[in-house]
Amino acid sequence: MPAYAVYSEFTAVYSVKGMTENDISSYWLEYGYMRINESLGSYFTTPFSSNNITAKDISIHFAMYGILVRTRNLRDSDELWRELDRRLSNFKTGNSPMILDDGTGLFSDSVKGNPWSNTKDYKPTFDQRPSFDQRVDPDLIQDEYDRDY
Prior knowledge:
By secondary structure, the chain is an all-alpha fold. The chain folds into 2 domains: 7-106, no CATH class; 114-149, no CATH class. The chain has 5 helices and 2 strands; from the N terminus they run H-H-H-H-E-E-H. It has a two-stranded antiparallel ribbon with strand order 1-2. The longest helix is centred in the first third of the chain and has 20 residues, at 21-40.
């Protein structure tokens, strides 16, 4: 299974006694890959590209979170989870971008607020009246005329 980070990038952030490079690389970094994809998959296109440094960073933290949940003090994992949850919430709501290695930001595909509609302020063209009584909203006709001229 792929991973966004490698062992040397993980150890640049965290130090874990009693775990081999193989343990981290073959399971925990893949766990981080899986967790970020499942957490943000409905908001971004996954898998993320190799130049997404935010995906790499979060996958490293998810890997450490998985280790802490299974091997360490519960309070340590709670603190890390709160940070991960806060960051994921900001990505999902579009408040924070995911950063690419060239410095550009990638915002989520989620729609905030009401989607735009070109018929929002107009009455429906067709309603329950007989067909010969149906009328197009005169404001809509005027707006279309104004757009043409």
